[in-house]
Structures are given as C-alpha cells and as structure tokens.
Design a protein that fits this description.
435 residues; alpha/beta; Rossmann fold; Oxidized Rhodanese, domain 1; 2 domains; eight-stranded mixed sheet; five-stranded parallel sheet; 14% strand; binds zinc ion; zinc; ATP binding
Length: 435
C-alpha cells in the first residue's frame, strides 16, 4: 500500500506530454480581483522584496506569475536556476531530466537535492524542493527526458527554455527545438573552475548555438563533471545568472538588457568575469540560417555527434581499443590472480588526484601519461620476469591503453581489470568508494 501511495504521490509531481499542462490545468496567476486592499496579502509578503524595485514592481510580478519556463537538467545548473525562479514566483516551472537518480557525488553542487534523497528521481526531487520553497506556484517534473521526437512539443508548451544540461546531444536538440518554436534559450555550462552563460534569442540577429558551433566537438574533447571534476559554486554562479536573465526576459524591467549576442565567461580560479561579443546569426546555419528549417524529429543527432550519445568517455572509446582480450580479467578473476600470485605488481594508472582519494591495497600509482617514461623502472620492480603486472583504472578504458603499451614493451604477463575499479566495486567489494 505504501508503494502505491508513493507512486500516486510521484505521478502528482510529474506531467506527461499531451496532458496540456502547463498551458491548461495550472494554478491561477496573481490577481487583484475581489481583493479589498490590492494584491492578496500573501503575494505582497512573498514577493515584496522584488516588487519594491521601481522598474519591476507589481507589473513585473504579474508578468512573472503569468509565465511558464522549462528547466532542462536537474543538476548543478538546474538546481540553483530553478530554485531562484521558484522563489521569484514564475507561475509554472517544468523540470525535465532524463531519469537520473540523485547520487551522493552530486550534492557538492546540486543543492536542490539532499542526502536523504539519494537514489530518488532527480526531476521529482527538485520538484519537491521547489514546492517547499514556494507552494504558490505550479511545478512539475518529467523524467522521460528530451528526444528528437518529443523536443518540439515539450518546448512549445513553455514561454522560455533554460539549457542546464551537460552534453552536446541535449544542447543541439534544445537549440534546434527553440529555433523552430521561436523560444528564447537561456544557456549555461560549467566544468572545473569555469563556466559560461548566454541567451539565444530569436530577435536582434542573435545567433543560435549552431551558428557558434556548427560542428559537434569530437567526443574526446567533451568534458564532464563526472570525469574532470567541478567546484560546486561554479555551476551555482552560472545557474544563478541563468535565473537572473530569465527573470529579466520574462518581466522586462525598464532599463535592463538581456545577455543577447554576448556571452559571459566566468573563471573561478581568479574570479574573473569576461563578456565577449558574439557573432551575428549565420545565414548558412542549418537551424536558423536563411531559408533553413531543420526537421528536429528526423535529424540524425547521433550521426552528427559522431555516435556518442553523452559524449562521455564511458562508452565512446570502448569499442575502438585494440587490446588483446586474452589479457583482460573480470573483477573476480583479477582478484583471484592477485591473491594467487607471489608479489604481483599492481599498477593504478588513474590521475594522482583520484589515486589519493581511494585505491586498492598495495597498488602503485603510475598515471597513464607517465607510464611510457616508467617502463624501465617497472621492469626493475618485477621480482621475476614472470611476475604478473596487474593494471587498474577507474572504468577499464585507460587500463586498456596501459595494457597495450605494456604488451608492446614486452611485458608478456600484464593484465587489466575489466570495468576498472567501478567493476571491482560492483563485483568484488561494494565497500570500495564510488565516485
Ligand atoms: Zn543558427
């Protein structure tokens, strides 16, 4: 029974395409009708601090409350952006995520979630946070995610779109859907110490994302916070700027100027903000160029992106590594070999920062980039030429590169761990730290 209630509660937090929400079936906007003293008391209390600003005022609040936005991505950018928009009283907020669940490693930056929600659907978790922050607005989540088939319909149900995603597929898809539907796109990105934000408008000769980046980046150049790391406040800064741009675009305060045809670059390392001017719309752009009309539903995004869905190292490189499969061991076999060998040499080829966080006992850190220069040293470290040389990395990709190097260098008894330390965790020891 509890399970049924949980599902009912979850369905009340979600919306599905075709339900009409948020165009129909959403809560009323603010009104002075039947109110003796102007705005309802709760509206004055809740929004007075922004309505006090003369260029925003009651009119700005009324515009926000009548507006709908969709935040795509319930992560490091989406959390702060959506939380400020909820607090400001945007009338309807949709949260789209691709069904990811909250992971403890998200919480340094994804502040709309919490430790007691680890394992919970991210869109649902963020919706709960936004409703707690402001019960007077209408907030719903969608965990199906954007696809070429659904993007146009999803986007056109809202007045404005925030790109808070972290992968090229979503960026191009959202861009194209916004171009076709004429929606303004408030776009943010953050990784490591750096972030950027801009607004792609359909006015003022604004370029679209494709005008600036007509070619997809090679998969190897696409970083993710998962692989490269990120300081939490960096997406916090960028997501917050996205919220501010959205509030301006929706409420149109006098004297304000949206970040159109300009991009702000933030570098947390030296706390610098730079604003660069962007090129104008490209007449040859396949999305927004002269006479162009991209068919989002049939455009082959996978082919355009070089067949890398997420652009992450996880899946893209695996198929291309020409490594001898006979020298690869499952986690269980890897452990058995470690235990049965005399003084095996266990090499961990991850970057030092990762090795210092967690590692297998008695392993030695030789980052992949340093391996070619350490081959002689390794040879000397082997107690016997036939001593097994065991190689691990995070997920089993870099260890294959290392293995290839070692086999080529004549280490005939070299082995690597399939699935890396992630695989070790799932098959040998769930207490090995996950990151
Ligand atoms: Zn364009």
């Amino acid at each position: 029974l509890l399970g049924t209630n949980d599902r009912m509660a979850d369905s009340e937090l979600q919306w599905t395409l075709g339900s009409g929400w948020p165009r129909v079936g959403r809560s009323g906007t603010i009104t002075t009708k039947d109110e003796p003293y102007g705005l309802p008391g709760e509206v004055v209390e809740r929004y007075s601090r922004q309505m006090l600003m003369p260029n925003f005022g009651v009119q700005g609040q009324a515009r926000l409350s009548a507006s709908s936005v969709v935040v795509v991505g319930a992560g490091g950018l989406g959390c702060p952006a959506a939380m400020y928009l909820a607090g400001a009283g945007v009338g309807a907020i949709g949260i789209i995520d691709r069904g990811d669940v909250v992971d403890r490693s998200n919480l340094n930056r994804q502040i709309g979630h919490s430790d007691d929600r680890v394992g919970e659907d991210k869109a649902v978790s963020l919706v709960k946070t936004l409703r707690a922050l402001n019960p007077a607005i209408d907030v719903r989540g969608n965990s199906i995610g954007l696809t070429p088939k659904t993007a146009i319909a999803l986007v056109s149900d809202f007045d404005l779109v925030l790109d808070c995603t972290d992968n090229p597929m979503s960026r191009y898809l959202l861009n194209d859907a916004c171009v076709v539907t004429g929606r303004t796109l408030v776009s943010g990105a953050a990784i490591g110490c750096e972030g950027q934000v801009t607004v792609y408008s359909r006015d003022e000769e604004s370029p679209c994302y494709r005008c600036l980046f007509p070619e997809a980046p090679p998969p190897s150049c696409v970083g993710t916070c998962d692989a490269a790391g990120v300081f939490g406040p960096v997406p916090g800064v960028i997501g917050t700027l996205q919220a501010m741009e959205t509030i301006k675009l929706l409420s149109r305060p006098e004297g304000s100027r949206a970040l159109i045809r300009r991009m702000v670059l933030y570098d947390g390392a030296d706390c610098s903000f730079r604003t660069v001017k962007l090129r104008s719309r490209s007449p040859s752009c396949i999305a927004c160029g002269d006479g162009a009309r991209i068919d989002v539903a049939t455009f082959d995004y996978l082919a355009f992106l070089g067949c890398s869905i997420s652009g992450s190292e996880k899946m893209s490189d695996r198929a291309r590594l020409p490594v001898d499969p006979c020298h690869r061991l499952s986690p269980v076999d890897f452990r058995a070999t470690l235990r049965s060998s005399t003084c095996p040499l266990l090499i961990d080829v991850r970057p030092r920062s990762q090795f210092l966080m967690c590692r297998l006992p008695d392993s030695r850190n030789v980052p992949l980039s340093e391996l070619p220069g350490q081959l002689d040293d390794l040879r000397r470290s082997l107690v016997h030429p036939e001593t097994p040389l065991m190689v691990v990395c995070r997920r089993g990709n870099d260890s294959q590169r290392a293995l290839t190097l070692l086999l080529d260098a004549g280490f005939t008894n070299a082995w690597d761990l399939i699935g890396g330390l992630d695989g070790w965790r799932s098959e040998c020891d769930p207490s090995f730290p996950l990151y």
